[in-house]
Amino acid sequence: LDLDTARQELEEFIPHVKNISDSSIKKMAGRDLTRFKQFKKQGIAVKFGRFTQKENNQIRRNVEEFLSISGIDSAEKLLFTSRYPEDKETIHRLKAKHEFCEKISEGIPRPWRLIYYRARKMFDPNNYKGRYTKEEKEKLMKYYTMHGNDWKKISELMSRSNLSVAMKFSEIKSAINYGPWTNEEIQKLKHAVKEVIKRKLEMEDTGSLPSLEQSKEDPWVDSEKLCQQLPWTEIEAKVGSRYWRQCKQKWNSILTKKMSKGQQSRKGIKALQSKIALIKRLHEMQLEDANEVNWEELSNALGGVPRTYVQATFYRIKVSYVPFWQKKSFSEIIDFLVEYKLPEFEEKL
User: Fold this and answer.
1) How far is CA 64 from CA 58, 103, 109, 139, 161, in A?
2) pTM of the model
3) Nearest-CA neighbor of 46 among 21, 11, 22, 20?
4) Can you give the chain as a three-state secondary structure string?
5) What Å distances lie between residue 250 and 163, 164, 222, 255, CA to CA?
6) What's the mean pLDDT when you consider all of the chain?
């Protein structure tokens, strides 16, 4: 497929495909498009978000089966081939011969890249080594001075996973505050988010920028749906006293709190409409596990609100209206809401 056709066909399965680079589109067209179409024929939607226990088990089976048919003697050699330079050529040949890409993703309706990263996280023996010692933190800072953001190199030197060393460096590179957020920190966070969203708007829609600048309303307020794609490491640098994960969590909590107050202040038709729409969409998904819910997709379907707001709304509905909800499965909770509360909400509406 040519690039434009591939992007167009992938858009049916991946809503945010416009934000994906050309090189990634080419890879997805080869690795994923045929799989996605096969899943569609089976009535199975492509998924994102947190992996379920069922999917983790499927990845384990896929890896074990591939090791069996290929003769490669460990998952670490299969998934971290660069750690075994003497076997590298042989492993690459076996992976190509036995169609590694196809086998590792079998039965899992997700992009291949996400499945591969999940498998690496699950089977990396360096990923579960507990807390960093003082000596390890000092080594990490030293290696960063020598190698910069080459986390692959640093992870090899420290025998820790790429993700682990990158996140730990983010935590310790400056004086990080783990206590309650101060008003000054919250203002810095809001200002940082405003700056990056405004710049993103300018890059995406330069033609309409004059009207945005002249608008009485701050243009960033209308772009809350962009919160999931924000450059959090850049925001972390602007805030200064918190690492990126804290900034993301705090920003999501601010949005959720603001939107929840907005819902409470307009009780009545809109609040009922939101509850009805959320219950119906969750019921249509026919899922057994809350971990299978694509909250990102659901938040877009409900008007581009933050996913944390949708999750908080569902939690309030569950706690308020479902008796003994702690003892019920996710599907039982949804079935109860559809059978007993949905008709009541619709009648009120």
Assistant:
1) 10, 10, 19, 35, 21
2) 0.52
3) 11
4) CCHHHHHHHHCCCCCCHHHCCHHHHHHHHHHCHHHHHHHHHCCCCCCCCCCCHHHHHHHHHHHHHHHHHHCCCCHHHHHCHHHCCCCHHHHHHHHHHCCHHHHHCCCCCCCHHHHHHHHHHHHCHHHCCCCCCHHHHHHHHHHHHHHCCCHHHHHHHHCCCHHHHHHHHHHHCCCCCCCCCCHHHHHHHHHHHHHHHHHHHHHHCHHHHHHHHHCCCCHHHHHHHHHHHCCHHHHHHHHCCCCHHHHHHHHHHHHHHHHHHHHHHCCCHHHHHHHHHHHHHHHHHCCCCHHHCCHHHHHHHCCCCCHHHHHHHHHHHHHHHCCCHHHCCHHHHHHHHHHHHHHHHHHHC
5) 22, 22, 19, 9
6) 80
Give residues with Cβ within 8 angstroms of 258, minimum separation 6. none
State how far the Cα of 41 lies from the Cα of 254, in Å rounded to an integer: 41
Q: Which amino acid is at 86?
A: E
Nearest in space to 150 (alpha carbons), one of 129, 135, 165, 131: 165
Percent of the chain with pLDDT over 90: 14
Q: What is the dihedral of CA 272, 278, 281, 284, to 10 degrees?
A: -90
pLDDT at position 106 is 92
CA–CA separation, 50 and 47 (whole Å): 9
Query: Angle at CA 303, nearest 5°, toward 313 and 290?
Result: 40
Average pLDDT score over residue span 310-334 = 86
Could you tell me which of 319, 315, 322 has the C-alpha nearest to residue 336? 322
Contact 107, 41 (CB under 8 A): no
Residue with tokens 């096969």: 38
Q: Is residue 217 very low, low, confident or very high in pLDDT (cuts 50, 70, 90)?
A: very low
* Token pair belonging to 95: 């992976």
Determine the length of the chain: 349
